[in-house]
Model the fold of this input.
Amino acid sequence: MNRLKLEEKLKRYIRADGRSQAAVARKLGYTPDTFNKWVRGVNRMPDGVIADFCTLLTLTPVDHAELLNLAGYAVPETLLQRRERGQTHGDARPVAGLVFATHITPEGRAIDPGTTFAPNVADLYAVFRADSTIPGTTVSVEDPAPNAYYAYLRINDEPTISTLGWRWYFNGDVVNEFEMPVQPGNIVWLQCFSYENEGIFCDPPFGLGEYRIVILLGGNPALSSQILVTPPH
Done:
């Protein structure tokens, strides 16, 4: 592992992104101290974290391969193809429909789309494929990847909806509800976040278990999906 060169590269990418190192760490789901030890080479940064870092900062496959080399990992031959398909390390992803993510890139692309989450996640976004968005919307990206999911939606110029929102059910009760007016051309997204950064599902009325999340258009249910909140591994 080339510790000094890796630290130099990581810090340069973070400076170019404009966020602080601590902000990047939290966005990736780690404490600033843990992330700082990876950056400085005190501990070896996992290859999965490198992949998420590259996605968050929208780095190129060449950048990704270089960071893997500097960290002492073999670069998979399928790296370019895997990144093109929007795949990362981890479980297989759903292929369509309404799913969710805890991290997105600056352009709104989901890093970890899925339907199972730990209780201590600080953010949760509704994310959509370009071919399966909410009626009256399109994903707000010029050239969406076919199998990627995106949080940011653009309201069509001739909208069929006046409001957009969601409603969360847990154990039969409504535990979260939000709705906003929309206008043609608006860029919108649905996000729940923890004000204290301690985890959305850590305190009542939330908890471990299954949630049903319903997307509302004009106050009426339009589509829904389930998520499962399980103890962290």
